[in-house]
Amino acid sequence: MSQKVDFHCHSTASDGVLSPAQLLERAICAGVDCLALTDHDTVAGTRWLVEKGVPESIQLISGCELSTVWGTREIHIVALGFELDNPDVQDFLTSQGRARWQRCERIADKVSRRLQDYTEEQCLEGALEQARLAQRSTDESFTLPDSEIQVGRPHFASWMVQEGITADRNTAFDKYLSAKRIGNAKQFWPHMADAVQAVLSWGAVPVLAHPGRYRMTGMKLQEVIRAFSAAGGQAMEVLGCQQPRGERETMARYCEKFDLHASMGSDFHGPWNDYVELGRLGPLPETCRSVTELLERD
Length: 298
Ligand code: AMP
Ligand code: MN
Ligand code: MN
Ligand code: MN
Known about the structure:
This protein has 298 residues and is of the alpha/beta class. 42% of the residues lie in helices and 13% in strands. Strands 1-2-3-4-5-6-7 form a seven-stranded mixed beta sheet.
């Protein structure tokens, strides 16, 4: 029987707009058999679901999307299939949380210099409040303490819209928060190869996330994939939503060339785009070996 899987999505534990329970419910309604909730740098959502109990109609794989750097580029690595209570996982994610907060302070500092009407503290508190609000306004039963909230650029974007600084979140990214502008504060993240090694040490599968979205030439992207594979990376996302024509075939070729399994994930953040939906991923190209083979080992 063919399985409907989705190994990349976000809840209000990071920058998604559905609570973990709402997301799980939506995945079940969409006919997903196997889901990984891969919030940015946290497993708080997955942990909460496991504590509440996951219905038998769906399998939940532990997952997380890690922010890392390779040279001057920010690269995302999805980790799949680890023990939530592994202390090494917890240590790594605590360190990611600290890096994320330092990065937020840096972004707030730069934003406040650009927008002279606001102090760094106001920008930072504004973004944090947006993250709290996203949780509270969605599902009162899932709210994290401030120390566990993963504040990111999307929360700064929401704050800018609320303050009337920009008309919408996209403009906030274009004008202030993109990697070419103030959002370029990646020096806090671990090196990609170190993150891959950490994931392997947990007995989990390191997956290169959304390779088609790094805005690189084909040559540069292949350099990243080669480095990822050489560091011990095992899989790469081949299927996503809203991919340009031919992308999945190109990624399938890179999988063969760099000896990687193929993963699949919608990168769903919220129900605002009909083309991005949990589990709506199409078939893998025939040459691909699915990442599920690696998750089924032992
Ligand atoms: P961060 O984890 O703080 O680096 O924020 C990255 C997240 O911001 C991504 O996972 C996307 O959800 C979102 N994002 C990145 N670029 C844009 C953009 N141009 N417009 C809207 N959202 C974006
Ligand atoms: Mn995101
Ligand atoms: Mn990402
Ligand atoms: Mn993502």
